[in-house]
Specification:
Helix content: 40-55%
Largest sheet: 6 strands, mixed
Oligomer: single chain
């Protein structure tokens, strides 16, 4: 393992414990009050590659400053790691010194809004802090920083970009354009047997700082044992025969069983024969190797993987998130779908399977929409029939009965308006003392206040309204924890402002009147969500979960991604 050589180089003894490889990947491409970093979202594609390489990955998209700090805390809580990769892409700001040079730098959150030198600490995270966290794994820590020259408003004492980076001992920093950093994170960084210094030297577009060893690999070549291990190309053992060496270099580049077998047929006792036999054994032991290589050759983008996860969700195969990262949840969902379709359950997809999955999801989405239309029509017929049976809300009792059954019904707005009129009439006709008691109860808006009114006026003009509001307050108190859970689940989806507006547009397009399309989920939006969920036989909460988002965006997002 490479860390043994590293500790020896530092003159230290290697502790006899197992460390974990940890990676933090944050792409901040979209900002509330700054220009989009166009290539930042490419960086999140590297999360999947890091996970495949055995890293425990913490990933975030369009994170606020508080969310970035929370993810850094999770990385810090991992303790001592074998290797650490921190990859950040987005807007950076630096302090402007008197001589015009750059000082401290900050990685900015999605919610950044014209910070100055006094407030930037609350809207971003200092690079010095990030580097200090990385230095917990000295000699095994790489920090990747990607950005673009894009518009951002900054106040006094700040300018865009990164200042002079003071790199702690044993930490590697690599910076450049967001697109180049993303490409490096996916291709070069995880190449086994290659040193960090060699990786940086290969690039004409990236700049390296700090610890840049030329002979110490960042990732070792994998051992042959381990059935699920990805087999990397072997090292080249130089021999005396130039033809043998040329053949071995070609075989190592192909990295296939057939290539190694051909080498052994030609040089059964050659200098690389033992390595070739070990590679053949390892390849044969890896399950689903051909399927894995076929999917990797497709070079699926993050958006394409998200579309696959949405399709799986529509077909009731839960990938445990729609984040564009194919972890165990996604692989399990793919395998379950393959098994149900009579396909070898490798957990990896080829082009034909992706097309088949997409077609099935489109068909299912159409079925669900038709089912929802029929269900909505049936619900509206029942709604209107109940309204008619109550005399179209001719009296207060009927109006309250209707709202209890259909709080978001066809006539709910009308029922509430009529109740307000009834209350206004009652207020005008009621004695001043009772009106004052009722006004006080409404001002307090507590269970105790309404119960006090009812004790004094059990048959008062506002008794019906008092009992109705009491029921609401009791339910609110009972459901407060449930609502907190629903809010947390919705927040966990990490919806961007663009996606939130798209959801409101989808609700408006369905005729559900969510209010202004501004990305703010107010009472009108919540009511529209409840109506949508009810019509589609989803859990009726007024809050978003993965199933509701997938159903809402199945058509709209499909159009965007497949164009």
């Amino acid at each position: 393992m490479s860390y043994r050589y590293l500790w020896a180089a530092f003159g230290l003894l290697l502790p006899q414990v197992a460390f974990a490889d940890t990676a933090l990947v944050i792409d901040n491409s979209r900002f509330d009050e700054a220009a989009t970093i166009r290539a930042a979202d490419d960086l999140l594609d590297a999360a999947d590659d890091l996970e495949e390489a055995g890293f425990r990955v913490f990933a975030g998209e369009d994170q606020t400053a508080a969310e970035i700090r929370a993810l850094l805390s999770e990385v810090l809580a991992e303790g001592e790691e074998s290797r650490v990769v921190i990859a950040l892409s987005g807007h950076f700001a630096q302090a402007t010194l008197l001589d015009g040079a750059g000082g401290e730098s900050w990685f900015l959150g999605r919610d950044v809004d014209a910070p100055d030198l006094a407030t930037v600490g609350g809207q971003g995270v200092a690079l010095s802090t990030i580097l200090e966290i990385a230095s917990q794994a000295q000699g095994r820590a790489i920090v990747l920083l990607g950005t673009e020259d894009r518009s951002i408003e900054l106040g006094t004492g700040l300018q865009p970009g990164m200042g002079q980076i003071d790199v702690p001992q044993g930490v590697t920093v690599i910076s450049g354009e967001a697109r180049d950093v993303a490409r490096f994170a996916r291709r070069d960084l995880l190449e086994p047997g290659v040193s960090i210094g060699e990786m940086v030297a290969r690039s004409d577009t990236l700049t390296g700082f700090g610890f840049l060893p030329q002979s110490l690999p960042f990732l070792d070549l994998p051992e042959a044992e381990g059935s699920a291990e990805v087999i990397a190309p072997p090292p080249v053992e130089t021999g005396s025969d130039p033809e043998e060496l040329a053949l071995w270099e070609a075989v190592a580049e192909l990295n296939t069983e057939a290539a190694y077998t051909a080498y052994l047929n030609e040089y059964p006792a050659g200098p690389n024969a033992a390595e070739a036999r070990a590679r053949v054994d390892a390849i044969r032991a890896e399950p689903g190797r051909a399927a894995r290589l076929a999917e990797e050759a497709l070079e699926l983008t993050r958006a394409e993987r998200q579309e696959i996860q949405r399709d799986l969700t529509l077909l009731d195969y839960n990938p445990r998130g729609i984040d564009g990262i194919f972890g165990p949840g996604s692989r399990g969902a793919i395998g379950a779908w393959q098994a149900a379709e009579g396909i070898e359950a490798s957990g990896y997809l080829d082009t034909d399977q992706i097309t088949r999955l997409s077609d099935m999801a489109d068909a299912r989405a159409a079925e669900l929409e038709e089912e929802a239309r029929l269900r909505a029509e049936a619900q509206e017929r029942a709604d209107r029939a109940y309204w008619q049976a109550l005399g179209q809300g001719a009296d207060e009792a009927g109006l309250r009965s209707y709202l209890e059954r259909y709080p978001d019904g066809v006539f709910s707005d009308l029922a509430r308006a009529r109740l307000e009129d009834i209350e206004a009439v009652a207020r005008a006709e009621t004695e001043a003392e009772e009106r004052a008691a009722w006004d006080w109860a409404q001002d307090q808006d507590t269970e105790a206040a309404y119960r006090g009114y009812l004790e004094s006026y059990p048959d008062g003009a506002f008794a019906g309204a008092a009992n109705a509001r009491l029921d609401e307050l009791v339910d609110d108190g009972r459901d407060r924890d449930v609502i907190a859970q629903l809010e947390a689940r919705e927040a966990g989806l990490n919806l961007t402002p663009v996606t939130r507006r798209l959801i409101e547009q989808r609700l408006a397009g369905a005729g559900l009147d969510p209010g202004p399309v501004d990305g703010v989920f107010d009472n009108d939006t919540r009511r529209a969500m409840r109506r949508y969920q009810q019509a589609r036989n989803l859990q009726v909460t007024g809050y978003l979960d993965q199933s509701t988002v997938v159903r809402l965006l199945a058509d709209a997002m499909g159009v965007i991604i497949r164009q």
